[in-house]
Amino acid sequence: MRILVVEDEHRIGTSIKKGLELEKFAVDLAFDGRDGFDLASTEDYDCLILDLLLPGLDGITICKKLRELNIHTPILILTAKSQLEDKITGLDSGADDYLTKPFSFEELLARVRALTRRSSGGHNPVLKVGDLVLDTISFQVKRGNTPINLSGKEYSLLEYLMRQAGKIISKDQITSHVWNYDDDILPNTIEVFIRKLRQKIETPFKNKKILIKTVRGFGYKIEN
Protein backbone atom coordinates (compact mmCIF):
# COMPACT_ATOMS: atom_id res chain seq x y z
CA MET A 1 0.00 0.00 0.00
CA ARG A 2 1.14 3.52 -0.79
CA ILE A 3 0.93 6.41 1.68
CA LEU A 4 1.56 10.14 1.24
CA VAL A 5 2.84 12.04 4.28
CA VAL A 6 2.62 15.86 4.14
CA GLU A 7 4.43 17.30 7.16
CA ASP A 8 6.58 20.45 7.29
CA GLU A 9 8.52 19.37 10.39
CA HIS A 10 11.30 17.34 8.77
CA ARG A 11 12.07 15.27 11.86
CA ILE A 12 8.44 14.20 12.32
CA GLY A 13 7.84 13.57 8.62
CA THR A 14 11.01 11.53 8.19
CA SER A 15 10.27 9.53 11.34
CA ILE A 16 6.74 8.68 10.12
CA LYS A 17 8.08 7.69 6.70
CA LYS A 18 10.74 5.38 8.15
CA GLY A 19 8.27 3.79 10.57
CA LEU A 20 5.68 3.11 7.87
CA GLU A 21 8.30 1.69 5.52
CA LEU A 22 9.29 -0.78 8.24
CA GLU A 23 5.61 -1.80 8.25
CA LYS A 24 5.82 -2.62 4.50
CA PHE A 25 4.15 0.56 3.20
CA ALA A 26 5.47 2.50 0.22
CA VAL A 27 5.73 6.11 1.42
CA ASP A 28 6.12 9.48 -0.32
CA LEU A 29 6.96 12.55 1.75
CA ALA A 30 6.25 16.23 1.05
CA PHE A 31 7.34 19.10 3.31
CA ASP A 32 4.95 21.83 2.13
CA GLY A 33 1.30 22.08 1.21
CA ARG A 34 1.65 22.83 -2.49
CA ASP A 35 3.93 19.87 -3.17
CA GLY A 36 1.63 17.69 -1.07
CA PHE A 37 -1.45 18.78 -2.99
CA ASP A 38 0.28 18.23 -6.35
CA LEU A 39 1.19 14.66 -5.37
CA ALA A 40 -2.19 13.89 -3.78
CA SER A 41 -4.10 15.16 -6.82
CA THR A 42 -2.00 13.41 -9.48
CA GLU A 43 -0.77 10.18 -7.87
CA ASP A 44 -2.74 7.19 -6.57
CA TYR A 45 -2.54 6.70 -2.78
CA ASP A 46 -4.25 4.42 -0.29
CA CYS A 47 -4.07 6.98 2.53
CA LEU A 48 -2.90 10.57 3.14
CA ILE A 49 -1.33 11.71 6.42
CA LEU A 50 -1.72 15.47 6.42
CA ASP A 51 -0.53 18.12 8.86
CA LEU A 52 -2.95 21.04 9.23
CA LEU A 53 -0.42 23.86 9.60
CA LEU A 54 1.61 23.76 6.38
CA PRO A 55 3.51 26.40 4.40
CA GLY A 56 2.21 27.18 0.93
CA LEU A 57 -1.19 25.55 1.34
CA ASP A 58 -2.76 24.59 4.66
CA GLY A 59 -4.19 21.16 5.39
CA ILE A 60 -7.82 22.31 5.51
CA THR A 61 -7.55 23.81 2.02
CA ILE A 62 -5.87 20.66 0.70
CA CYS A 63 -8.70 18.50 2.08
CA LYS A 64 -11.36 20.71 0.51
CA LYS A 65 -9.63 20.87 -2.87
CA LEU A 66 -9.14 17.10 -3.03
CA ARG A 67 -12.78 16.42 -2.21
CA GLU A 68 -13.87 19.01 -4.81
CA LEU A 69 -11.85 16.99 -7.34
CA ASN A 70 -13.76 13.86 -6.24
CA ILE A 71 -10.59 12.32 -4.83
CA HIS A 72 -11.80 10.16 -1.96
CA THR A 73 -8.49 8.87 -0.61
CA PRO A 74 -8.76 8.45 3.20
CA ILE A 75 -7.15 11.41 5.01
CA LEU A 76 -5.68 11.36 8.51
CA ILE A 77 -4.96 14.89 9.74
CA LEU A 78 -2.23 15.73 12.24
CA THR A 79 -2.55 18.85 14.35
CA ALA A 80 -0.86 20.49 17.30
CA LYS A 81 -4.18 22.10 18.10
CA SER A 82 -6.32 20.39 20.70
CA GLN A 83 -9.45 22.55 20.53
CA LEU A 84 -12.62 20.73 19.53
CA GLU A 85 -13.43 23.36 16.86
CA ASP A 86 -10.18 22.64 14.99
CA LYS A 87 -10.90 18.92 14.90
CA ILE A 88 -14.45 19.53 13.69
CA THR A 89 -13.19 21.91 10.99
CA GLY A 90 -10.73 19.28 9.78
CA LEU A 91 -13.36 16.56 9.62
CA ASP A 92 -15.88 18.89 7.96
CA SER A 93 -13.32 19.76 5.29
CA GLY A 94 -13.20 16.12 4.18
CA ALA A 95 -10.73 14.41 6.51
CA ASP A 96 -11.63 10.95 7.82
CA ASP A 97 -9.76 10.95 11.13
CA TYR A 98 -7.35 13.05 13.19
CA LEU A 99 -4.46 12.76 15.62
CA THR A 100 -3.34 15.48 18.02
CA LYS A 101 0.41 15.97 18.48
CA PRO A 102 2.26 14.54 20.28
CA PHE A 103 1.14 11.02 19.38
CA SER A 104 2.66 7.55 19.46
CA PHE A 105 3.64 5.88 16.21
CA GLU A 106 1.64 2.81 17.28
CA GLU A 107 -1.56 4.88 17.41
CA LEU A 108 -0.84 6.47 14.04
CA LEU A 109 -0.21 3.02 12.53
CA ALA A 110 -3.45 1.65 13.97
CA ARG A 111 -5.44 4.54 12.50
CA VAL A 112 -3.77 4.19 9.09
CA ARG A 113 -4.55 0.47 9.04
CA ALA A 114 -8.17 1.13 10.02
CA LEU A 115 -8.58 3.74 7.27
CA THR A 116 -7.02 1.55 4.58
CA ARG A 117 -9.12 -1.46 5.62
CA ARG A 118 -12.25 0.69 5.52
CA SER A 119 -11.45 2.08 2.07
CA SER A 120 -10.72 -1.37 0.66
CA GLY A 121 -14.11 -2.58 1.84
CA GLY A 122 -12.89 -5.09 4.39
CA HIS A 123 -12.08 -5.30 8.07
CA ASN A 124 -10.30 -8.67 8.15
CA PRO A 125 -6.53 -8.23 8.48
CA VAL A 126 -6.01 -11.75 7.10
CA LEU A 127 -6.20 -12.01 3.30
CA LYS A 128 -6.90 -15.36 1.62
CA VAL A 129 -6.82 -16.57 -1.97
CA GLY A 130 -7.35 -20.31 -2.08
CA ASP A 131 -4.87 -21.81 0.38
CA LEU A 132 -2.60 -18.75 0.24
CA VAL A 133 -2.86 -16.68 3.42
CA LEU A 134 -1.34 -13.27 4.16
CA ASP A 135 -1.59 -11.77 7.65
CA THR A 136 -1.24 -7.97 7.45
CA ILE A 137 -0.59 -7.68 11.19
CA SER A 138 2.17 -10.26 11.62
CA PHE A 139 3.38 -10.02 7.97
CA GLN A 140 3.32 -13.81 7.77
CA VAL A 141 2.57 -15.53 4.48
CA LYS A 142 1.67 -19.21 4.19
CA ARG A 143 0.48 -21.59 1.54
CA GLY A 144 -1.30 -24.38 3.32
CA ASN A 145 0.86 -24.97 6.38
CA THR A 146 4.10 -23.91 4.69
CA PRO A 147 5.54 -20.49 5.67
CA ILE A 148 6.81 -18.35 2.78
CA ASN A 149 9.59 -15.79 3.23
CA LEU A 150 9.19 -12.65 1.12
CA SER A 151 11.22 -9.48 0.78
CA GLY A 152 9.52 -6.21 1.71
CA LYS A 153 8.67 -5.32 -1.89
CA GLU A 154 7.51 -8.86 -2.70
CA TYR A 155 5.22 -8.72 0.33
CA SER A 156 3.79 -5.33 -0.70
CA LEU A 157 3.15 -6.57 -4.23
CA LEU A 158 1.44 -9.74 -3.03
CA GLU A 159 -0.70 -7.82 -0.53
CA TYR A 160 -1.87 -5.43 -3.26
CA LEU A 161 -2.73 -8.28 -5.63
CA MET A 162 -4.60 -10.16 -2.90
CA ARG A 163 -6.59 -7.07 -1.92
CA GLN A 164 -7.68 -6.87 -5.56
CA ALA A 165 -8.24 -10.63 -5.95
CA GLY A 166 -10.13 -11.56 -9.10
CA LYS A 167 -9.49 -8.18 -10.74
CA ILE A 168 -7.10 -7.49 -13.61
CA ILE A 169 -4.40 -5.10 -12.36
CA SER A 170 -2.30 -3.13 -14.84
CA LYS A 171 1.42 -2.49 -14.47
CA ASP A 172 0.69 1.20 -13.93
CA GLN A 173 -1.67 0.38 -11.06
CA ILE A 174 0.93 -1.88 -9.47
CA THR A 175 3.62 0.78 -9.79
CA SER A 176 1.44 3.50 -8.27
CA HIS A 177 0.42 1.39 -5.26
CA VAL A 178 3.59 -0.54 -4.48
CA TRP A 179 6.50 1.75 -5.40
CA ASN A 180 7.39 5.22 -4.13
CA TYR A 181 7.15 8.26 -6.41
CA ASP A 182 10.93 8.64 -6.64
CA ASP A 183 11.79 4.94 -7.00
CA ASP A 184 13.80 4.04 -10.09
CA ILE A 185 11.45 1.71 -11.99
CA LEU A 186 12.89 -0.09 -15.02
CA PRO A 187 10.65 -1.32 -17.89
CA ASN A 188 10.86 -4.94 -16.67
CA THR A 189 10.73 -4.28 -12.91
CA ILE A 190 7.15 -5.53 -12.52
CA GLU A 191 7.85 -8.71 -14.51
CA VAL A 192 10.91 -9.42 -12.37
CA PHE A 193 8.95 -9.16 -9.11
CA ILE A 194 6.01 -11.17 -10.46
CA ARG A 195 8.47 -13.91 -11.43
CA LYS A 196 10.03 -13.81 -7.95
CA LEU A 197 6.59 -14.14 -6.36
CA ARG A 198 5.69 -17.09 -8.56
CA GLN A 199 8.96 -18.80 -7.64
CA LYS A 200 8.00 -18.56 -3.97
CA ILE A 201 4.23 -19.11 -3.89
CA GLU A 202 3.79 -21.46 -6.88
CA THR A 203 6.99 -23.24 -7.98
CA PRO A 204 7.50 -25.17 -4.69
CA PHE A 205 3.84 -26.28 -4.77
CA LYS A 206 3.72 -28.19 -8.05
CA ASN A 207 0.53 -30.09 -7.22
CA LYS A 208 -1.42 -26.94 -6.37
CA LYS A 209 -3.20 -24.38 -8.52
CA ILE A 210 -1.43 -21.50 -10.23
CA LEU A 211 -2.66 -18.34 -8.49
CA ILE A 212 -1.03 -15.42 -10.34
CA LYS A 213 -2.21 -15.22 -13.93
CA THR A 214 -0.90 -13.02 -16.73
CA VAL A 215 -3.64 -11.35 -18.76
CA ARG A 216 -1.74 -10.56 -21.93
CA GLY A 217 -1.95 -6.92 -22.94
CA PHE A 218 -3.68 -5.90 -19.71
CA GLY A 219 -1.72 -6.96 -16.62
CA TYR A 220 -2.05 -9.56 -13.88
CA LYS A 221 -4.61 -11.00 -11.54
CA ILE A 222 -4.56 -13.39 -8.62
CA GLU A 223 -7.41 -15.82 -8.12
CA ASN A 224 -8.07 -19.34 -6.93
From TrEMBL:
Record field: transmembrane: none
Protein name: Two component transcriptional regulator, winged helix family
4-aspartylphosphate found at: 51
GO biological process assignments: regulation of DNA-templated transcription
Lineage: Bacteria, Candidatus Collieribacteriota
Domain OmpR/PhoB-type: 124-224
Keyword Transcription regulation: yes
UniProt-listed InterPro entries: CheY-like_superfamily, OmpR/PhoB-type_DNA-bd, Sig_transdc_resp-reg_C-effctor, Sig_transdc_resp-reg_receiver, WalR-like, WH-like_DNA-bd_sf
Gene3D superfamilies documented for this protein: 3.40.50.2300, 6.10.250.690, Winged helix-like DNA-binding domain superfamily/Winged helix DNA-binding domain (1.10.10.10)
Gene Ontology molecular function, alphabetical: phosphorelay response regulator activity; transcription cis-regulatory region binding
Residue range(s) of DNA binding per entry: 124-224
One cellular-component annotation, GO: protein-DNA complex
Keyword tags: DNA-binding, Phosphoprotein, Transcription, Transcription regulation, Two-component regulatory system
Occurrences of domain Response regulatory (ranges): 2-116
Tagged with keyword tRNA-binding: no
